Amino acid sequence: MGDNPDINEGTQFTPRFDQDGLIPAIAQDANTGEILMVAYMNAESLELTRKTGFAVYFSRSRKRLWKKGEESGHMQRIERILVDCDQDCLVLKVRVDSGQCHVGYQSCFYRALDPATGQLEFVADRVFDPASTYRKK
Amino acid sequence: MGDNPDINEGTQFTPRFDQDGLIPAIAQDANTGEILMVAYMNAESLELTRKTGFAVYFSRSRKRLWKKGEESGHMQRIERILVDCDQDCLVLKVRVDSGQCHVGYQSCFYRALDPATGQLEFVADRVFDPASTYRKK
C-alpha cells in the first residue's frame, strides 16, 4: 500500500520497479478469469508488451527477455494491462490457447494446499505433454 | 519457472521465500474471479493464514504482520490456497464483502493502461470512502 495520491489516484503511469528493475505481472485469462502465471517485467519487456500486444517478460533465471510462447507456441495476446494502487504490480488480461504452464497445465496454479495436512493436492489435469512441446537444447 | 520435479510435481509444500523472507500472494475473489490485491507473506503470516482461515500478510512498509481488514473490517476468508509450479507465488481464493483496496475500490486494479497514450484510465467505481473507514492515527 502507499498513500501518495499522485500514484494512487492519478492517471500518469509510473510503474515502480524493484531494486532489480523488475515489476511482477500476473497473467489472467481474459475469458475465464483464471490466474495463469506470475512473471516479471523490466522496463524494456513492458515497453515491448505494450508495443507488440503480446506478453514479453524478463526471465530471472535466464536473465534475458522472454516472449511468452517463444518455445511452446502458447503466446499471450494482451487484452488489457491493469496496474494496482501503488503501481508496483501489473495484471495482464490475456487471450490464450491452452497450456500456459511449462509443466503441462493450463495454469501454473495446479496445486492447492490442504490446510489440515500441509501437503499439496493436484486440482487440475495436464493439458499437454511438456516432453513433446519443448525440444531438447 | 524451474525444472526441479520435486518442486514442480510433488505434493510437498516448500514455499520459496525471497531474500527478504517473503513470498507474493495474490488475493482473488473466490466468487467472481476478480484479482483484488497482491501482498506479501513471511513464514509466520503464512502459518497464521493457514491456521486462522483469514488472510494475514507481512506489510513491507510497516514491517509487521498485517491481518487484512484489521482497520477497515474488510477481511479475507480463505477458501483455498494455491501454489505455482516453482512454489514462489501463492494465490488465495478468498471470500470478501466489499472494498478490498484502501483507496476505496473493490480491487486495487482499478486503472488500465491506454497503450496508445501511455496514460491510465479508471475502469472501476469507488465502493467506499476511505476517509470514513480509516480513522486518523
Helix content of chain A: 10-25%
- Main β sheet profile of chain A: 4 strands, mixed
SS element count, helices of chain A: 3
The number of distinct β-strands of chain A equals 8
Strand content of chain A: 25-35%
Work out the radius of gyration of chain A: 16 Å
CATH superfamily of the domain at 5-97 in chain A: Phosphoribosyl-AMP cyclohydrolase
- Which fold does the CATH topology of the domain at 5-97 in chain A refer to? Ubiquitin-like (UB roll)
Distance between the termini of chain A: 43 Å
Assembly type of the chains comes to: homodimer
Which two chains share the most extensive interface?
A-B, 48 and 48 residues
Which whole number gives the mean pLDDT of chain A? Answer: 93
- Structural class call of chain A reads alpha+beta
Low-confidence stretches of chain A: none
Q: Based on CA inertia axes, which overall geometry of chain A fits?
A: globular
Following the backbone from N to C, one meets helices and strands of chain A in this order, namely HEEHEEEEEEH
What's the CATH class label of the domain at 5-97 in chain A?
Alpha Beta
Biggest sheet strand line-up of chain A: 2-1-6-5
CATH architecture of the domain at 5-97 in chain A: Roll
